[in-house]
């Protein structure tokens, strides 16, 4: 066996074990940082590139009961709460339940404002919404782990 082959045979299982042990936690904290960062921006009117879309979506989903600055503050608080639960791991199941509801709201513009987002090719705002599909998938993986699923490397 060559030195490179021997190194590979020792390294791959070690890397696999590390990934099985830590990768979902890295994903959880990364997703939390994204939610906390984008949520914090919304506390400062005029700073978030998603401000207009967020307000319009909350206004539509709440049948006008929440609008303007109030809608924006609700979105900011929800996103920061989700981010903090993901980063810290505390109240994780609660944060994931809030994330599930928030993801419905995050994806709602695809239905509510489809023609605005896709007047032909997707607008930059549409692309911003579409990238949230990856965030939803990450949330599913994190939720699976929080509910007891385990990523275990193959033996042998």
Helix content: over 70%
What is the number of beta strands? 0
Query: Averaged pLDDT, please?
Result: 91
Task: Work out the radius of gyration.
Answer: 20 Å
The N- to C-terminal Cα distance equals 18 Å
Please report which band the strand proportion falls in: under 5%, 5-15%, 15-25%, 25-35%, 35-45% or over 45%.
Answer: under 5%
**Number of folding domains?**
1
Shape: elongated
Largest sheet: none
Treating each run of at least 4 consecutive H or I residues as one helix, how many helices? 8
Structural class: mainly alpha
Order of helices and strands: HHHHHHHH
Transmembrane segments: 26-44, 64-87, 94-113, 133-152
Keywords: Membrane, Transmembrane, Transmembrane helix
Membrane topology: Multi-pass membrane protein
Protein name: DoxX-like protein
What's the helix and strand layout?
Layout: H1 3-41, H2 51-61, H3 68-88, H4 92-107, H5 109-112, H6 114-117, H7 124-130, H8 132-146
Helix pairs in contact: 1-3, 1-8, 2-3, 3-4, 4-8
Explain what you see.
The chain crosses the membrane at residues 26-44, 64-87, 94-113, 133-152. It is found in: Membrane. This is DoxX-like protein. InterPro entries: DoxX. Keywords: Membrane, Transmembrane, Transmembrane helix. The chain has 156 residues and is mostly helical. It has one domain. The chain is 75% helix and 0% strand. The protein contains eight helices and no strands. The longest helix has 39 residues, at 3-41. The radius of gyration is 20 Å and the shape is elongated. The chain starts with a helix and ends in a 10-residue tail after the last helix.
């Amino acid at each position: 066996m060559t030195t490179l082959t021997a190194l590979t045979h020792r390294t791959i299982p070690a890397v696999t074990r590390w990934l099985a042990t830590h990768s979902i936690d890295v994903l959880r904290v990364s997703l939390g940082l994204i939610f906390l960062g984008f949520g914090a921006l919304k506390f400062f009117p005029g700073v978030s590139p998603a401000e207009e879309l967020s307000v319009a979506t909350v206004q539509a989903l709440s049948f006008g009961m929440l609008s303007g600055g109030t809608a924006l503050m609700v979105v900011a608080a929800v996103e920061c709460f989700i981010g903090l639960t993901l980063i810290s791991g505390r109240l994780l199941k609660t944060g994931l339940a809030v994330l599930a509801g928030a993801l419905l709201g995050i994806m709602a513009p695809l239905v509510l404002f489809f023609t605005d987002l896709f007047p032909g090719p997707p607008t930059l705002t549409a692309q911003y919404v579409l990238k949230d599909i990856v965030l939803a998938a990450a949330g599913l993986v994190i939720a699976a782990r929080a509910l007891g699923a385990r990523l275990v490397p193959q033996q042998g």
